Amino acid sequence: MRGSRISSRLVVAATLLSSALLLFCCFTTGDANGRLELGYYSSSCPRAEDIVREQVTQLYHKHGNTAVSWLRALFHDCMVGSCDASLLLDGGVSEKSSPRSFGMRNFKYVDAIKSALERECPGTVSCADVLALAARDGAAILAGGGPLAAEMPMRTGRLDSRVAASHADVERAIPDHNATVSEMLAAFAAAGVSGGAEAVTALLGAHSVGRVHCANLVARLYPAVDAGVDPAYGEYLRGRCPTADAREDTRDVAYARNDRVTPMVLDNMYYKNLLARRGLLLVDQRLADDPRTKPFVERMAADNDYFHDRFAAALVALSENNPLGAGEGEVRRDCSEHEGKVRSRIFGRGRLRCWDEHATGGTVCCWYWTMTTWVVMVVEDQEIACLGQSQSIVSMDSFHAAT
Description:
Order of helices and strands: HHHHHHHHHEHEHHHHHEEEEHH
Shape: globular
Pfam families: peroxidase
Strand order of the largest sheet: 3-4-5-6
Binding site for Ca(2+) 2: 259, 262, 267
Helix content: 40-55%
Family: Belongs to the peroxidase family. Classical plant (class III) peroxidase subfamily.
Strand content: 5-15%
Mean pLDDT: 78
Main location: secreted
GO molecular function, one term: metal ion binding
Number of strands: 6
């Protein structure tokens, strides 16, 4: 009699396990090999790209700097392993908190775009695709529309990472403001941008818009202005950054605009400034000095349409870096938290209870109540991953408190 009861419990456990795994698969749609495609949401969420474009446009008219933020967010996300929205995850050690991410903002407006998509198509459009589409639409706005928008056919179908990269990974993947041209070429090649010096020169044209904090400039200004900087421009920058003691932790951070002439237009003024020795960051000015990139600086300075064409191609290439396969990612409802954190739960009935955690790849642990404690009855190939949870449920009272 006792044996039959335990057997029936195991049947229930197996049923619950199958149900949990079926539930898990529903949150990891996407191509098994991580392939992207144009119009990925044409059936599941036909208005997805329109909604993103509408939200990006509305936010731009309310907060113009959001369009710049989308470009930087895509760069930071895609350079670190994959375009997988790992940048957006909160936590004690997050990519957001890396020193390389200093000055990044407007993450709350990603939530606004995602909320609009969730109202239309719950649990369908990934946060990684939100970042990619927002960057495309933001770039088109900053460029004044026209051909740039048509030149960026953005494939979609990305999945969201369940974990953020470490600070060490971020530091290795994202070059700093003093990087050499060789370091830049290597970093972008590792991120899937195969266009070499031409593509890297075009992508750095994103520095045509936005601003740079003085903490990243003062080494070129003090104790003396870098000899490679136009003297008049150096004096202007010293006015913007009046002390070498520029800090990264103050609320009112001093900064200088990347481009004083057209500061909120994505255009070739950036390259004209480089040729005039008015590159804001050392990594910028090096493009005009290195024989591998100088010809492209000169050509882009002379031809804005050529710059836009090469920038669009390079941005699309970067946005497709190493997409996650179906078993590697998920579609987050909240871009700052992985689905496992949001949807972990305990379920079951009678003496059998199961707990599933999507962050561990759908691991389901089940316990059977022996009248004195809960013991692990079913574990899907990851018993160690379940022990902490099983040990924390040591009585009926504490179990009920956890449900």
